[in-house]
Give the backbone structure.
Amino acid sequence: MLPKLLITGATGFLGFHILQAAQTHWHVVGAYHRASRRRAQRFFGEIDNGRIDLGDFSETKAMMAAVRPAAVIHTAAITDLDYCEQYPHESLAINLKSAVHLAGLCGDRDIPFVFTSTDLVFDGAKAPYGEADPVTPINVYGEHKALAEEGILADNADAVICRLPLLIGYAGLGRETFFQKMITAFRAGQEITLFGDGIRTPVSGAVAAQGLLQVVGSGFEDDVNVAEIERVVGLLHLGGRDVISLYELGLLILQLLGLDDRLAIPISLSDAPPGQNDRSFLAARSANVALDSSRAYELGYDPPSLRTQIAKLLNLDC
Ligand SMILES: NC(=O)c1ccc[n+]([C@@H]2O[C@H](COP(=O)([O-])OP(=O)(O)OC[C@H]3O[C@@H](n4cnc5c(N)ncnc54)[C@H](OP(=O)(O)O)[C@@H]3O)[C@@H](O)[C@H]2O)c1
């Protein structure tokens, strides 16, 4: 019998990709929140799943007792930066408190718990960032993720905190991704403004999912062996190998699509200061949050080049 893997946030962008990739080695159970059960079941197919508000601790505890997972990957979160800025109490409840609570429950059961954190725990002033660098969040989302990391490791020293970079690809269910919007606009001949000073180490959702599954199940071996492996614990960066600005990312996509590179218009983060004009955001944006992921690479995480990942997403032979 396959071991049970609980994926929270299964209807989200990353959850969907983990769910796709996990089924060979795991009996997958997906938890989600607002998506209707019917819609989720159409999306999940035969996979067990459950609707839950992770903000309700008794519901979470009951779910863990009912599912009895062998491991948990926690991707559920409120991920809209501006929404978190506007509704910090909601962000606090989900991005911080529920994550720490779930990590504690996994610690009690001595099962692997993988938390999906973000490069946005850093302010962007001193990239590239390694695991040992101190966190310096500049918005509510980043602050609650950073506090969650601290709370999780204080409660469950065997937890893994995977800091993820910008993820690209197509959403299975739920809102359209930044990448999807960019492709749609470019294909329609529409110009897009992109930050020339917003620098990241992106990977596709599928590559991130693979990295997380390596971490949770196999100690970077091919098979799943939760009981016997020497677990990876603590902080781990799962960034890509390419350090690239959002503007350069747009150019790369245009080049691969064979479209006019003038459709990507470079702008600066200083052109859109938080809360000051129509084009601005509520939450401050970090500039260069490139991750140094050499620890993960040494362990066996091996993201292909960004060009290869994008070509695969676009179904191109390159
Ligand atoms: N996407 C990126 O570029 C990126 C980059 C760095 C880190 N990350 C991290 O990766 C993780 C996944 O991100 P994502 O982009 O896949 O997020 P997403 O698409 O916004 O999905 C969020 C998921 O969380 C669920 N959720 C939200 N509130 C919940 C609640 N109260 N109870 C239970 N489930 C709840 C949602 O369920 P419903 O849809 O059913 O409400 C959805 O399945 C997050 O931890 C994020 O911080 C993402």
